Amino acid sequence: MVRDALNMAMDEEMARDDRVYLLGEEVAQYDGAYKVSRGLWKKYGDRRVIDTPITEMGFAGIAVGSAMAGLRPICEFMTFNFSMQAIDHVINSAAKTLYMSAGRVNVPIVFRGPNGAASGVAAQHSQCYAAWYGHCPGLKVLSPFSSEDAKGLLKAAIRDDDPVVFLENELVYGTPFEMSDEALSDEFVIPIGKAKVEREGKHVTLVSHSKSVELCLEAARELEGQGVECEVINLRSIRPMDEETIIKSVMKTHHLITVEGGWPQFGVGAEVCAKVFESAAFNYLDAPIVRVTGADVPMPYAKSLEQRALPQGFNIIESVKRTLNLSPAAAAYRS
Amino acid sequence: AESASLNVLSPYKVYKLDDGPPESVEVTRDDGLKFYRQMQTVRRMETAAGNLYKEKIIRGFCHLYSGQEAICVGMEAGLRPTDAIITAYRAHGWTYMRGVSVLGVLAELTGRQSGCAKGKGGSMHMYTDNFYGGNGIVGAQVPLGAGIGFAMKYQGTDNLCVALYGDGAANQGQMFEAYNMAKLWDIPCIFVCENNGFGMGTPVERASASTEYYTRGDYIPGIWVDGMDVLGVREATRWAAEYCRAGKGPLLMECATYRYHGHSMSDPGTSYRTRDEIQEVRQKRDPITGFRERLLTNNLATPEELKKIDVEVRKEVDEAVAKAKTDAELSAPNLYYNIYKQIPEDYKRISRWGGTHESIIIV
């Protein structure tokens, strides 16, 4: 499960480096609000696994200060929604200090926690921050999908000398993914800034991150039966973004659809589009790009409305068909 | 005389403390001359900065420390070089006291490469060893300072951090968040309020329900110090540092002071106070002239010695001004350096120079 992969990553990195410590609300004695830090307090004790009061701005500031002075904090936000209380420290204190100090003071910190829509918790607790943080130079922003992503990227984030925003997804914490032997090793680290082609295909490229990758893979399986081969790219890293993998894929498939749970305007998909427009791949596009995103509304509470506010499999499938100019009959013919 | 025993200028006030720093302090001739030189250097440097601003060589924000010199000089004397400091946007004096040269400060202000942040930081963002800025966000430096103190304790040292803020910042919510955790976790941090009477143009009485800033840590003990008295500040800092090093947790310190200039260069500083008020402080409470008198009356220095220091300081600052005016700015590619310490493989920064779209790779 993704939860265990994250736990393993923190455990291994804490064992490896005494400067690494974890702080946040309920991370220690309660074992984590979502049990991601289960067992770490028992293993590492009060010095290295620290329960904070409910005081995001304060503890984010303390974490950043400690990173300036040589520690490597993992600062857990119970969810990223609460990081808005602390966003000044994420951006003004963490992201900009290396630049302002002309390279003298670096801030090796990881801000992590669940991001994106949860289930039935309404507007203030369901939101994607990938675009917010992805906007800011000085930050690295990671958004894992699978267990391997979670483990390899979190270890990379903890070892990194710069501030990293690590966007998890509560809805996949309990999802089982296979882990290769390599991924189980304590030296398994995934490089920051590289996307992963989850599935190869030649007709259309689907670019996505986090839980939406799952939707893309499901849509790709369904479309396969209709003769459409989707290439699914899991971004893994929002900032820096792996342009090369996207561009290469678009030059192969000539069609692009972006899929994300966040809002459309200035979103991750918007950035992917812009990168393609500015690249050599622009001339390879045979149809306009389509963005599949969360609806441009605050998240409603009611179940049926919430569902409509998030991308669904059929949104992707219809977008693919529209992009490829496939009527159901044409799709059948193609196969 | 080689040394003298003097009383602090104003009695300390203490909050939730059984005792306080001694009010009779010993000062050697060497220390006296050193403090005088340091305060004069900061004063002279700030005057030069004000002039460079008027000549439009310094841009943007520029907050001068004149009037508050006894705090950075006195506190530095009561600390170890391995202790850390973080302060707010009124950072020039502190930057100098932490070891940056006058040129390092002035060239930073003029945006030149000899600046301590090579011209990337400017007035509010200066750094050196164990000096973490220079933070432009009012109040943000306080939890950061608590975090630096946290790191010192975590690393098993007996160093501490001093986090400075103004009376304006004292009302920010994050102060109280930092106080709370610092006390819960016994963080070795001295929270220092430099109360200069005004948060920008608002006098303390109109901004703070309680202006007794040294008591506003509630469960954190505090000391009030006359911030115009370099010896009082040094003694109180020594005492506070000892308290923190003993593992007793954080302490608050309020230094009562005054700023002669406006809040920043765009503020003439006369709409919310009278010129007479400023003049009266200059005459009766000035930290440098007051200390000068004490050095002379206690035979710790002669007028000639002090005059010699004045001349040397003036020369040092004048030379720094000349270099700060003529030094080069960083070359254009530096625009893209120092965004990341660890640059991701193949990471491209896209720049738009001269209207053309150009991708450059920085190694």
TrEMBL record, chain A:
Gene Ontology MF annotations: metal ion binding; pyruvate dehydrogenase (acetyl-transferring) activity
Major localization listed first in the record, in broad terms: mitochondrion
Assigned EC number: 1.2.4.1
Cofactor(s) needed for function: thiamine diphosphate
UniProt keyword Transcription, yes or no: no
Keyword Oxidoreductase in record: yes
Transketolase-like pyrimidine-binding domain location: 2-175
Record-level GO BP terms: pyruvate decarboxylation to acetyl-CoA
Pfam families named among the record's database cross-references: Transket_pyr, Transketolase_C
Keyword entries, A-Z: Metal-binding, Mitochondrion, Oxidoreductase, Potassium, Pyruvate, Thiamine pyrophosphate, Transit peptide
Catalytic reaction list: N(6)-[(R)-lipoyl]-L-lysyl-[protein] + pyruvate + H(+) = N(6)-[(R)-S(8)-acetyldihydrolipoyl]-L-lysyl-[protein] + CO2
Top-level division of the source organism's lineage: Eukaryota
Subcellular compartments: Mitochondrion
GO cellular component: mitochondrion
NCBIfam families: PRK09212.1, PRK11892.1
Functional description taken from the UniProt entry: The pyruvate dehydrogenase complex catalyzes the overall conversion of pyruvate to acetyl-CoA and CO2.
Name this polypeptide is given: Pyruvate dehydrogenase E1 component subunit beta
Organism annotation: Capitella teleta
Lineage of the organism: Eukaryota, Metazoa, Spiralia, Lophotrochozoa, Annelida
UniProtKB/TrEMBL annotation, chain B:
Keywords per UniProt: Oxidoreductase, Pyruvate, Thiamine pyrophosphate, Transit peptide
One biological process term in Gene Ontology: pyruvate decarboxylation to acetyl-CoA
Gene3D superfamilies: 3.40.50.970
Domain (Dehydrogenase E1 component): residue spans on this chain: 37-330
Enzyme class label: oxidoreductase
Catalytic activity, as annotated: N(6)-[(R)-lipoyl]-L-lysyl-[protein] + pyruvate + H(+) = N(6)-[(R)-S(8)-acetyldihydrolipoyl]-L-lysyl-[protein] + CO2
Molecular-function GO term, any one: pyruvate dehydrogenase (acetyl-transferring) activity
Keyword Oxidoreductase: yes
CDD domains: TPP_E1_PDC_ADC_BCADC
NCBIfam families: PDH_E1_alph_y
PANTHER family documented for this protein: PYRUVATE DEHYDROGENASE E1 COMPONENT SUBUNIT ALPHA (PTHR11516:SF60), PYRUVATE DEHYDROGENASE E1 COMPONENT, ALPHA SUBUNIT BACTERIAL AND ORGANELLAR (PTHR11516)
Protein name: Pyruvate dehydrogenase E1 component subunit alpha
